[in-house]
Model the fold of this input.
Amino acid sequence: MFKKILIANRGEIACRVIKTARRMGILTVAVYSDADRDALHVEMADEAIHIGPAPASESYLVAEKIIAACKETGAEAVHPGYGFLSERASFCEALEKEGIVFIGPKPKAILAMGDKIESKKFANAAKVSTVPGYLGVIEDAVHAEKIAGEIGYPVMIKASAGGGGKGMRIAWSESEVRDGFDRARSEAKSSFGDDRVFIEKYVVDPRHIEIQVLADGYGNTVHLGERECSIQRRNQKVAEEAPSPFLDEKTRKAMGEQSVALAKAVDYQSAGTVEFIVDRDRNFYFLEMNTRLQVEHPVTELITGIDLVEQMIRVAAGKKLPFVQKDIKLNGWAIESRLYAEDPYRNFLPSIGRLTRYRPPEEGKQGDVIVRNDTGVYEGAEISMYYDPMIAKLCTWAPDRLAAIDAMAEALDAFVVDGIEHNVPFLSALMKHPRWREGRLSTGFIAEEYPDGFAPSEPDGWQQTALAAIALSASLIETSRRERHADRLRAASSDLRSDWVVRIGKDYVGLSLTEGHVTIPFDMGMNADCSEIQVVTTWRPGEPVWSGTIGGVKVIAQIRPILNGLRIDWQGLSVRTKTFTPRHAELDRLMPVKLPPDTSKLLLCPMPGLVVSISVSEGQEVKAGETLAVVEAMKMENVLRAERDLVVGKVKAKPGESLAVDAVIMEFA
Ligand code: ADP
Ligand code: ADP
Ligand code: MG
Done:
């Protein structure tokens, strides 16, 4: 076995690999860029080597620097994680020349599978069912139009070297093919340094289901069942689960066998994933094979009990797989939520900055539930603009699907992240979504269920009562502490005013206290709408998480002080609350409501980004849907279009300029 390995990656995946290596008694070497001097993976590793400036192209993507770091530290093998150099055959070859082992497949398999066009050809030859389409490089927009016409609309234009959901466009018509082709090609060039694109049939409303395979160097290949990853935004996975609620034993077996056949056909070694889209009738079509560890691999680990990183390391060290297909048993259900630094209320725009507070829920097994959190950050760390906006991957396991979903909802409610915007409210809302809970999924789920974007939902009756109870309990606990009356109040809670009104957003909820005490633990009866509920909590002032029971139901919510009140985040709801006496509530109702400023005559920059181009000039008349400007952020080109017919007024931004979120790009006349 290796004595020392280097992890050519950063963030959560570097930390995750280090954990397993340490458990196996292997020393670890981290590499880091200027932006990652204080990163968690650097702290966790036994040694760390600086490899250059923040941009990945000058650090994490430079093979020579990784090799030099191996030589300097005596690392015998490299685990590439995902992204970065993980699917570069030239990197494996360079390592091999230096006598360093690549912990992953052989270059031949990466070459065959790492490229979408090549891998589709290969899959066809191995009799794996593939998405209908054109198996070659599209030369220009005219060629694209011709091919699309032959395949039949809608089609998908994809970068052959693509990954991470980037560099693909759906086109429903000839004009969209022309438009999309150029954009897909320029995006492919800028994101992957390779502008080859191809076209295939766009399967409407499919599910994304993928098979995990594992192979050693002795011809033993197994599959570890499937993961369903249909909850996607912009073709990028947001939540995943294993197994899939859709597959029957027959389809699982067929997909597993085709995946193993494909892996064998390329002499695959190590862990890999064969991705399929599956239509309503359970027909499945090969999409691509990812020749690396997948982001969502933890859900498979949770239901199989197999550590994929451990197996990758063992296989790379020349060991045989310690199991065969019939030993693999799928047990229970696991869900993964990807926590991203993005604002769900603003069309998921990336958010960067310092994590002023980062308190994940407790990991480990409790009763029938396992919580696992893979992360690369810590409180005080910075989410930078240079890399992926993923903060953490939160996983839960339980014996069945609904229990795993409920455990996830609870874990999300307890996950405290401050300082940047993040998608926890969205993930929490998802866990409550009836269609998700029923398992009626498709890759169009988010677009269909949130056509106008994600907005916080209105609390229902029970949620409103619970929110009022949380707000009132917190305000009573605060007051009692401030007044140092705790002991006296305990003795005579009759001293306490009994009638209160809590404002939740725009609504007012009346609560009257029955009996109990406001000290810690707080334990008080409250009358809401003629029904009495008992409210119990151990919350103390200053704590971000309120946990307790309301009417016997376990509740975990987050509370943050705001001006004259509290903001409560719970189950995907985010409400501003304020506690009043009935008299003050009367007066509050009379206060004028402040209206937000009118921004309808402005084009605002929707995210921090770089202006690529301004497509209009002052005085120009523009029709709804026409392009106004293109802004690049996190390697995506975002086209800003006119929402209605308008006349362009003053243009305030220039191409090449870096803009903050909400900066004015242009005014309309
Ligand atoms: P998975 O299928 O494992 O969920 P994704 O396709 O979402 O993985 O990509 C995994 C990670 O690797 C993401 O962080 C993505 O940004 C990154 N990535 C994928 N392909 C590439 C590539 N060709 N170059 C650089 N980064 C990539
Ligand atoms: P990436 O390398 O970025 O992961 P994939 O080819 O795996 O690219 O596609 C990512 C996602 O895009 C899929 O999970 C699916 O939701 C969607 N997608 C890709 N190809 C098609 C297609 N032909 N029809 C419908 N959806 C597709
Ligand atoms: Mg994919």
In short: The longest helix spans residues 461-482. The domain at 602-668 is CATH 2.40.50.100 (OB fold (Dihydrolipoamide Acetyltransferase, E2P)). The chain has a mean pLDDT of 93.
